[in-house]
Amino acid sequence: MARARALITRLLPQALSLLACLLLWHWASTQRVHLGLVTFANVPPPAEVLQSAWDLLHSPRLVQHLSSSLGRIALGFALAAVLGVGLGLVIGRSRWAQLSLLPPLEVARPIPAVAWIPLAILMFPSSEGSMIFITFVGALFPILLNTIHGVEGVDARLIASARSLGTGRFALFTQVVLPGAAPSIVTGLSIGMGTCWFCLVTAEMISGQYGIGYYTWESYTVQNYANIIVGMLLIGVLGMGSSVLIRRTGQWLMPWQQPVEQRT
To answer: Which parts pass through the membrane (predicted)?
Structure first.
């Protein structure tokens, strides 16, 4: 009973905030509110967007768009996770690696994903490869930097204690450094997944034929405004769901990070 009450207490404010946003959207779009530089005259109401979402749900193109976007996300994010975590662990533990590898990565990090698109088109013979590369670049740096900070943030006293007990380098890495850096790594993976979706949509708008980003941009070009919002909401739901999945997986892999009452 107490657990159900706690669940309701947590979910009720979230549901009410979403409902308030929905009602505000309905009022602004139906009343065609004009607020200085911002106008809702061309924004479709929620009912029209819901109808467009229903039409898309029964369209065969939905599977094509979803499979294209999810495939690009999966491959680009997987490559970024492997390389970002691997490089982050090495740079965080090796002074030589930090001095030699970090400067070029720091130069490339502020470059936005949009700026990489022309170079990606030149580098990869297929548009599919260029879009996967853009998602990879977008996810790489949040994962890399959080991994580095996680490794550097491991308590030096734990490392010294493990060494004094005769722990070898490999055991020290797997039993002290990696578990200590794991929370930051999971945070980086979650942030990287969000930027991965952002970069994918940008790439699909320019060089895609299928995908949620391409669907959203195509809807704009044909002035189907309800479909634009459907694409935006679909991106938001998929991005949120994938980030939540990463956090849940991290909590499952790191039971020592949970409060004692949640472990039973």
So the answer is: 73-92, 104-124, 130-149, 170-191, 225-246
